[in-house]
Design a protein that fits this description.
CATH class of one domain: Alpha Beta
CATH architecture of one domain: Alpha-Beta Complex
Distance between the termini: 25 Å
Number of strands: 17
Structural class: alpha+beta
Protein name: Amidase
Shape: globular
Helix content: 25-40%
CATH topology of one domain: Amidase signature (AS) enzymes
Organism: Aaosphaeria arxii CBS 175.79
InterPro entries: Amidase_dom (IPR023631), AS_sf (IPR036928)
Number of helices: 19
Largest sheet: 11 strands, mixed
């Protein structure tokens, strides 16, 4: 049999749909073990450039092999059976990977149980491939003029995929980058205020921040128990829909899920069909987006025309009654609720850890550790957001309750919810990451989905954001966000899918560097090596074993066994790139067993 026979029509991993991957697995064109091997090689090929992936699960191939056996026995757990997925490094998984929010302070710590979202993925048959980098503490450490999106002490700086050295946005930076580069089928991120939709737009992928309560948040390092949500990022609307179905549902460990108004979670992928949106009313908060970049607005207005052509009634010039009061509100008071909620939530998390090797039991302990641990890069990376906590009210104090009442009123009744009700809208639409629409939706827990809208043109002058990292540059993507009423994810998927289908934005421009390994390479290499004879012959098991190693000693924290040829991890940074700003690329050596 030719080593390349029938391999060139295998799905390409950056663009593969779930249907294509599932069909290939069902027809034994390839296995989940081979799928994991291919993704791992792709990670090793580009992670020095983007720093998206933090760790790989050493047991990924073993899990894949078990799921392959289940498939052969006709036991399929669901559409995600045997499909690798990466998770943000604040989602606890009961395996050999760490969960640290990007900080050395929590390295080796363990809560009482695995995050429900991780358990649901396992139950659906997904392979938890590993952890991705994030903005440390979900972007709640350094101040706006000192930190950068996508930087963490453990992972250093994650970079955007469409221009060298560019801002990936955050805080789910690695989730977005790994999705657009085809380092995974999909990734899981978290959002408190824009942390899914914003990095999704910068990577030209789809990101869904679901209604607070649709997906359980237990087992996830918190920022705000009132405002946190968790959702998927992937290349297409339908891919995101499949994953959201798998992770949604009520949980005894998160009271917010009791607000789910239906007994059975919809199959959200079923909403991703059709080409018409007749009868829908979608509002545009024109005043709120007036200062948006002209390049973005030109594409946005074109998108509105596309929606009209699909039968949508565009209600333009929708006003937020609270706009002037919101703009005039003191910034310290605006952030008071979130600050108080972070202190309350994180100290509760720390107290409940069953393993806490650095004895971080309070915010004060966290501050002291961060200041004294050189790898945390203080004071080059400050802790301004934690220092602000000293100025704000305590959780549940009268001052906190007063600020919360005002914030909910301005964001909700007199903000985005009031606008939806007044104009009898089904959805609000706006360019992604525009304040106040993005913030209003986050503050009151509304679902939002972002879809690719366009790219900056070739003649764009690169500009920097937060000092050194590039914000706007040629080919940098931007997105469009649809926001709905609570638990209207089905409608959001329907609208986003139709828009995605008629706009065809994503493939206009590709990342400036991409991994090369495809499934055919893994399969062909295996076939060639299994034909070798003698003691030097390598088996398929050996082919799949690929280990990344560094010239530096391994990091502190949990010890990982590498005695098995299936063990895999991402190496620690080389000493040639010690910068706390992390602006130099990391270096790795790839050893193949």
């Amino acid at each position: 049999m030719s080593a390349t026979k029938n391999h060139f029509d295998l799905p390409r991993l950056r663009t593969a749909s779930l249907e294509e991957l599932a069909t290939g697995l069902d027809n034994q064109r390839f296995t989940s073990v081979q799928l994991v091997a291919a993704y791992k090689r792709r990670i090793s090929e580009v992670n020095d450039e983007f720093n998206a992936v933090l760790e790989i699960n050493p047991d990924a191939e073993k899990i894949a092999a078990s799921l392959d056996n289940e498939r052969r026995d006709g036991k399929l757990r669901g559409p995600l059976h045997g499909i690798p997925i990466l998770l943000k490094d604040n989602i606890f998984t009961d395996d050999q990977t760490s969960t640290s929010a990007g900080s050395y302070a929590l390295l080796g710590s363990r809560p009482v149980r695995e995050a429900t979202v991780a358990t649901k993925l396992r139950e659906s048959g997904a392979i938890l491939l590993g952890k991705v980098n994030l903005s440390e503490w979900a972007n709640f450490r350094s101040g706006p003029n000192n930190g950068s999106n996508g930087w963490s002490a453990r992972g250093r700086q994650t970079y955007g995929a469409f221009y060298p050295g560019s801002d990936p946005d955050g805080s789910s930076s690695g989730s977005a980058i790994s999705s657009i580069l085809g380092l995974t089928f999909a990734a899981i991120g978290t959002e408190t205020d824009g942390s899914i939709v914003s990095p999704a737009q910068r990577s030209s992928v789809v990101g869904m921040a679901p209604t607070i309560g649709l997906v359980a948040r237990d087992g996830i390092i918190p920022l705000s128990n009132r405002q946190d949500t968790v959702g998927p990022l992937a290349r297409t609307v339908k891919s995101v829909a499949y994953v959201l179905t798998a992770i949604s549902g009520k949980s005894p460990y998160d009271n917010a899920t009791s607000s789910i108004p239906f007994d059975h979670i919809p199959n959200y992928a079923d909403a991703c069909q059709g080409t018409r949106l007749d009868g829908l009313r979608i509002g545009v908060p024109r005043d709120a987006i007036a200062e948006t970049d002209g390049i973005v607005m030109k594409k946005f207005d074109k998108a509105l025309s596309l929606l009209k052509s699909r039968g949508v009634t565009i209600v333009d010039n929708v006003l937020f009654a609270s706009a002037k009061e919101w703009d005039a509100w003191d910034s310290a008071e605006k952030r008071a609720c979130l600050q108080a909620e972070f202190k309350h939530s994180i100290e509760k998390w720390l107290r409940e850890l069953v393993e806490n090797p650095n004895n971080i039991n309070s915010l004060s302990d966290l501050v002291n550790f961060t200041k004294s641990e050189p790898k945390e890069c203080y004071p080059e990376r400050d802790i301004q957001r934690w220092e602000w906590l000293q100025e704000g009210p305590e959780y549940n104090s009268d001052a906190y309750k007063k600020a919360l009442e005002k914030m909910l009123r301005l964001s909700g009744k007199e903000g985005i919810i009031g606008a939806i009700e007044e104009h009898k809208l089904d959805l609000i639409v706006h360019p992604t990451n525009i304040d106040p629409p993005t913030t209003f939706a986050a503050r009151v827990g509304l679902p939002a989905i972002t879809v690719p809208l366009g790219f900056y043109p070739d003649d764009t002058e690169p500009t920097c954001h937060r000092g050194k990292i590039i914000d706007v540059a040629p080919n940098v993507p931007f997105g469009i966000t649809f926001t709905g009423k609570p638990f209207t994810e089905e409608l959001l998927f329907r609208v986003a899918h139709v828009y995605e289908s008629v706009s065809s934005v994503r493939e206009e421009i590709k990342p400036f560097r991409m991994p090369e390994t495809e499934l055919r390479d893994v399969i062909s290499a295996a076939e060639q090596r299994t034909m070798l004879s003698g003691k030097d012959r390598l088996t398929l098991k050996n082919i799949h074993a690929c280990r990344l190693s560094s010239t530096t000693p391994s990091r502190s924290g949990p010890s990982y066994s590498h005695s098995s040829p299936l063990s895999t991890r991402i190496a620690t940074p080389l000493p040639i790139s010690p910068s706390c700003h992390g602006l130099e690329p990391r270096g790795y050596f790839l050893d193949e067993i």
